[in-house]
Structure formats: structure tokens, C-alpha cells
Amino acid sequence: MQEIYGKPLTETEARSLVVRDIMSYPVVTTHEKASIREVAKLMKKHNVDAVVMTDKSGAPSGIITEGDIVRRLVSTKRNLWFVKAAHVMSKPLITVSRDMSIEDAAKFMAEKKIKKLCVVDQGRKLIGMLTTEDITKNAGYLINVLQEVIHTGYYMGLL
């Protein structure tokens, strides 16, 4: 069995990197009753292009991206001052496991035609976000890892 830092890898980990290796965290969140103005301020403050909405219990329920704001609000004649996040957010929230392979996550994103996936743990708690940007900025690293695994069958990189 292959090892990273002396820890035995599962069959999935031995095959490739997984979502938790490159996901972004923490995730910026706010409640569904927040105004679009509040959501936009959060995006600016945290320099992100998406905010995850949470319901009354604090569970993630949807997502608002910059694209959602442009497509659903700016391009229409709606008054932005009074629009609530719940009316604009994309739902249901599409999530993946932190243990999903990067390859499978990328295929899933392509199939769903989305650029962001919320990452949840086994208890369905939001722990990160995987974006096409995360995959792209790690592409060189991923190619090197794959070449090393293909040539040697063994990976001793930094995770």
C-alpha cells in the first residue's frame, strides 16, 4: 500500500488527489434573509465571487454567485434594494464529499454545468468549496503528481 507521510492510503487516495486536497476554505456564508446588498458587501469584503446561504438551523441551503446577481437581477428591472438572497440563490445546493477524486469532481462539474461545488463532511456539514479555479491553479501540480504515480506507482508529495 502507498503512503503519504507514513499514513497508508486508501485505494481512492492512491489513485489520485481528492477534493479536500485542493478545496478552498473557510466558506463565506450568510442567512437566506440577507439582502442582495449584504451579500454583495460580503463578496467584496472577503474577495470571493460566491456566498453560501444558510437556513434557520444554520444548514447550507443555496448559493449566490456574482453570475446569479448579474443574470437574475442586474439584467432585469428589479429594485436591488429590496431583494432577499432567498429569491436569487441557486438551490438545491449541489455538494460533494471531501473524499471524491479531483477527476470525478471535475467531471461532475462539467455534467452539471457549474463552476462551484460545496464540500461537505460525513455529517453534511459545509467544510469547503471546490471551484474550477481551484482545479485550474493546481493543474500543473496535479499533472506532476499523475506523472509520478504513473512512472513509479508511488507518491511522496506534500499534501
CATH-derived topology:
CBS-domain
CATH architecture type: Roll
Instruction: Quickly give the structural class.
Output: alpha/beta
Strand content: 15-25%
Compute the separation of the termini in Å. 17 Å
Query: CATH first level: which class?
Result: Alpha Beta
Q: Which stretches are poorly predicted, pLDDT < 50 over at least 5 residues?
A: 1-7
Overall form: elongated
How many domains is the backbone divided into? 1
| Helicity, as a percent range | 25-40%
The overall pLDDT average reads 82
Report the order of strands and helices. Answer: EEHHEHEEHEHEEHH
Strand order of the largest sheet: 3-4-5
Q: Count of DSSP E strands?
A: 8
Q: How would you name the CATH homologous superfamily?
A: CBS-domain
Q: How many H/I helices?
A: 7
CA radius of gyration is 18 Å
Profile the largest sheet: 3 strands, mixed
Q: How does this structure look, described?
A:
The protein has 159 residues and is an alpha/beta fold. It has a single domain (3-152), classed as CBS-domain (Roll), CATH 3.10.580.10. Helix content is 38%, strand content 20%. It has seven helices and eight strands. The chain has helices at residues 11-15, 19-22, 36-46, 66-74, 102-112, 132-137, 139-152; strands spanning 3-4, 7-8, 29-31, 50-54, 60-65, 95-97, 116-120, 126-131. It has a three-stranded mixed beta sheet with strand order 3-4-5. A three-stranded mixed beta sheet has the order 6-7-8. It is elongated. Residues 1-7 have low confidence and may be disordered.
